[in-house]
Amino acid sequence: MQSRTFVVKYRLSGTFVSNPSCAMALSEPMNSEKQTTTLHIPSVAESIHRIEKFIDSLRDEHKVNEECYGNMLVAVTEAVNNAIQHGNKYDASKQVEVLVEVESDQIAFTIRDQGPGFDYLNLPDPTDPENLEKPAGRGVFLMKHLADQIIFSENGRVVELYFKTTGHIG
Question: Which of 17, 113, 115, 133 could be disulfide-bonded to 83 (CB atoms 3.0-4.6 Å)?
Answer without folding.
Answer: 113
